[in-house]
Design goal:
Elements (H helix, E strand, L loop, with lengths): L1 E6 L4 E10 L7 E11 L1 H4 L7 H22 L18 H6 L6 H11 L7 E7 L3 H18 L3 E5 H10 L20 E2 L9 E6 L4 E8 L2 E7 L5 H11 L6 H15 L22 H12 L6 H29 L4 E5 L6 H13 L3 E3 L11 H12 L26
Parallel strand pairs: 1-4, 4-5, 7-10, 10-11
Antiparallel strand pairs: 1-2, 2-3, 3-6, 7-8, 8-9
Helix pairs in contact: 2-4, 2-5, 6-12, 7-8, 7-9, 7-10, 8-10, 10-11
Bound molecules: 5'-O-[(R)-(carboxyoxy)(hydroxy)phosphoryl]adenosine and zinc ion.
Zinc ion binds next to helix 6.
Length: about 425
Amino acid sequence: MHILGIETSCDETAVCVLECTGDFGGNFAYKTLGDALISQIAIHAPYGGVFPNLAKREHQRNLTPLLSRALDESGLLRVRTEAGPGVHSPQSVVRSILERETELLPQVETFLQTYDRPHIDCIAVTAGPGLEPALWVGVNFARALATQWELPLVAVNHMEGHIIASLVTQSRSVASSPQSVAKNQGATGHELRTSDFPAVALLASGGHTELQLVKGLGEYSLIGETRDDAAGEAFDKIARILDLPYPGGPEISRLAAEARAGGLVSPAPFPRPMLDSGDYDFSFSGLKTAARKLIEAHQPMTDDLRSAFSCEAEEAIVETLVIKTMRAADEHDAQTIIVGGGVSANVYLRSRLAEAAASEGRAVLFPGPGLSTDNAVMIALAGYFRALKEEFTDPAALRADGNMRLSSKIEKDQ
Ligand code: KG4
Ligand code: ZN
């Protein structure tokens, strides 16, 4: 199945085409035929965070060029011929779907008039959670294409995408199909036996921090979540206090590694929030406030001090995430720990979690290269498994939902 994935939930605009075969388990394999992404990091950096209306504008500008690029890479972009499949001119329904996307509409109209309908079997789009103005652009783009090309549409939960990005990282090679382009030799497959479940998923990004119990593919229960700031947000905010650029996670991580190598120690410890709360919730806002006070009390700032504080911030966030994740894994007897979201790119988190999981005989799965931060591949993958179950959505009825939940919360009985 050729699946077109579209992601616009935050500050990455991404479009990809995957070729997927088999069902989840032994015979599943996928191959990335085309993958095009534009990060808006540089545009949002001066604001120290993502500015929703700016993200909306940029998604509108980026989506059509990225669609062309992803289809072209896939060998699926064909200029319209009289005899070719497709449409003669965009229908008024496309205009009404993209009525509010005033920058996107003319580009989509031109695209639909210029190119044939590509050999795509299904469209998967992030419908939530995320920044609602940003989500709407991708959702309306997908609705317009699905309507015009008469293709089935799958609404994907972004958090499920992050889970699946880690589940498919164990790779094996499979033969390329005739449509596959030369530069993408081989496909990535994943085998997850049912005995690998239940799993506990730690999902940590700039907007979310949560622990999900994964009983099987598509079977989730929320174990705990942040009550205020997300882990990535804590990295970003503490970085800002330290005059480091956005996004703060990679910067803090880089300086923390320098501090460890140079034996630099923070003059004061940062708190590890909610470790004794008796549940699996997180709270990072207090950590940020405590960090601010301690950093302000140690002025003037020097390079060494900045590195030492970065190290302490990373230790505090990572330790909190690891301890709570391991406790949840223990309580739910998880065979596997799945880690997803932008913060899962953090090298220190990876090594601490791998160490803790190995000491308890649990497996730990991280996303492969390029799949930690937001991307369209994880959305297409999640969409594929839903498409296999024919969980399609009506393009006329699909709405973006900034607060979309993956599951409801398990209340802890103690
Ligand atoms: O999943 P993502 O790309 O977007 C959201 O859905 O939010 O995550 C972005 C977040 C940012 O807060 C960024 O600082 C954090 O992930 N991040 C990191 C690292 N790389 C990205 N945090 C810690 N260490 C990293 N290496
Ligand atoms: Zn994300």
